[in-house]
Design goal:
This protein is α+β, with helices and mostly antiparallel strands. The chain contains 14 helices and seven strands. The protein has two domains: 215 residues, Endonuclease III, domain 1, CATH 1.10.340; 126 residues, Alpha-Beta Complex (Nucleoside Triphosphate Pyrophosphohydrolase), CATH 3.90.79.10. The chain binds a DNA duplex through helix 2, helix 3, helix 6, helix 8 and helix 9.
DNA sequence: CATTCGTGGCA
DNA sequence: TTGCCAAGAAT
């Protein structure tokens, strides 16, 4: 492809000069620790820097190296991940850490293929960790780079399509500065995150503006082209806050995979058609724990959006009528004090409910 | 190739 | 209030 505006050498140079003065001071950039690079890249999957920042500090403090992470309990890892979302990332980090200790003597693999074999490490993360921590000449292709390149080349095709992704990856690889792949990759993502933003891009501050095909005709906000997503359905949910005579509350652990896998929660579930929230509450507790409860009063209603659906959660204060709760799915359930609720990883919607019931006298 | 998997910020 | 979307991976 013949280059417009900027030669590849000029592209690399302008990007490099810009990044040398505009790079944000981020904690995982202060040293070159493959472990920290790995943790940060996993945290940054589908997650903004501002949101990941406090989690990174806390996580590497709690688990300073691969061995510490490998020796930790999953519950402890999830507790440190609580609120960050996509909890499969935390489960995979934990699995991968044990794999690294068992199969690689505690050393993070320094090759693209070695990295990709770790659970939770895909094309992007293998390229990112490989280039940043080990200097491998692998171009990253994340949402930032896709946005920068589709604007730079005015790519009219749907970036969700595999052939388009492959072409973009080749383009990124051709532009990659082989003398400093890690810094080049970071610079590309930094441009996307701070200048070439989805809305209101700061083209006047862009180091590669003079080569940008979209900016030439003012169409930068039309890229990247994406197929529109289906609207998210809304689900009505009822949960039971069951309080025992001694004040302890009943919580259970979710199955180890799937939505919010491994997190703890108050029992409950979907409200079926024609069913009241209180009825659903009692039925779910009966099905999940084999006991009868009396819903006393509705504590609150919490609306919450997940990635592909949203819920309206009706929370009910309940009394145990009879029986000893035991889960029917083999996962543990526990009577815990209100203070102990801080020691278990809960989904966001549950945590908001906990904030309510622990600050009031109920 | 399409779907599943969180959360918070922003217009 | 709603929709969009952000340093993707697994299935």
């Amino acid at each position: 492809m013949a280059e417009r505006g900027l030669t590849i050498a000029e592209f690399r140079r302008r990007l490099s000069v810009w990044f040398s003065s505009r790079a944000r001071d981020l904690p995982w950039r202060r040293g070159v620790d493959p472990y920290q690079t790995w943790i940060s890249e996993v945290m940054l999957q589908q997650t903004r820097v501002d949101q990941a920042l406090p989690y990174f500090e806390r996580f590497v403090d709690a688990f300073p190296d691969v061995r510490a992470l490998a020796e930790a309990e999953l519950d402890e890892v999830l507790l440190n991940w609580e609120g960050l979302g996509y909890y499969g990332r935390a489960r995979n980090l934990h699995l991968a850490a044990r794999q690294v200790v068992r199969d690689h003597g505690g050393q993070i693999p320094g090759t693209y293929d070695g990295l990709k074999q770790l659970p939770g490490v895909g094309d992007y993360t293998a390229s990112a960790v490989g280039s940043l921590a080990f200097g491998l000449p692998e171009a990253v292709l994340d949402g930032n780079v896709i946005r920068v390149l589709t604007r730079y080349d005015a790519v009219p095709d749907d970036v969700g399509r595999s052939p388009v992704r492959r072409q973009l990856r080749r383009r990124a690889q051709a532009l990659l500065d082989p003398t400093n792949p890690g810094t080049h990759n970071e610079a590309m993502m930094e441009v996307g995150a701070t200048v070439c933003t989805p809305r209101n891009p700061r083209c006047a501050e862009c180091p590669i503006q003079s080569g940008c095909a979209a900016h030439l005709v003012g169409s930068q906000e039309q890229y990247p082209v994406k197929a529109q997503k289906a609207p998210v359905p809304e689900v009505q949910v009822a949960v039971a806050v069951i309080e025992r005579e001694d004040g302890r509350l009943l919580v259970q652990r979710r199955p180890p995979s799937g939505l919010l896998g491994g997190l703890w929660e108050f029992p409950g579930g979907k409200i079926e058609a024609g069913e009241s929230p209180a009825e659903a509450c009692a039925r779910e507790v009966r099905e999940e724990l084999g006991v009868e409860v009396h819903p006393i009063h509705e504590i609150t209603v919490i609306r919450h959006a997940y990635s592909h659906f949203r819920i309206v959660m009706s929370a009910w204060s309940c009394r145990l009528a009879s029986g000893v709760p035991a889960t029917t799915n083999g996962e543990p359930c526990l009577w815990v004090t209100r203070d102990q609720l801080a020691d278990f990883a809960f989904p966001r919607a549950n945590r908001r409910l906990i904030e309510l019931i622990t600050q009031e006298t109920d």
